[in-house]
């Protein structure tokens, strides 16, 4: 019978812990804003670019594009080569309709 060697426990530093907490807050706020703006409902019909989404939500296009990129990094959206955003399977959970 072979014995396994337990993996060393790596504890994050206090700074890493605080950074993870701060990032969690930013992620939850991004999801909240996306839900408030109804982005998933707007994207249900198909991909749209940031300008079209900004016009539909009456928001500032460059700021909305930054939010869309964050949502993409969270796996809720994908962006194609032409800058159109679409929902991922996970992102469809934000739909209200």
Largest sheet: 3 strands, antiparallel
Helix content: 40-55%
Q: SSE order, as H and E?
A: HHEHHEE
Strand content: 5-15%
Instruction: Report the average pLDDT across residues.
Output: 93
Q: Given the structure, what is the number of helices?
A: 4
Shape assignment: elongated
First-to-last CA distance? 56 Å
Determine the structural class based on helices, strands and strand pairing.
mainly alpha
State the total count of DSSP E strands.
3
Would you kindly provide a written description of the structure presented here, covering whatever features stand out?
Helix content is 52%, strand content 9%. It is mainly alpha-helical. Strand 2 (77-79) and strand 3 form a beta hairpin. Helix 3 crosses helix 4 (61-73). The longest helix has 24 residues, at 14-37. The model has no long low-confidence stretch (mean pLDDT 93).
Main traits of this protein?
mainly alpha; 3-stranded antiparallel sheet; 9% strand; elongated
Task: Provide a concise account of the structure shown.
The protein is 52% helix and 9% strand.
What is this structure's SSE topology?
Blueprint: H1 14-37, H2 39-43, E1 48-49, H3 50-57, H4 61-73, E2 77-79, E3 84-87
Antiparallel strand pairs: 1-3, 2-3
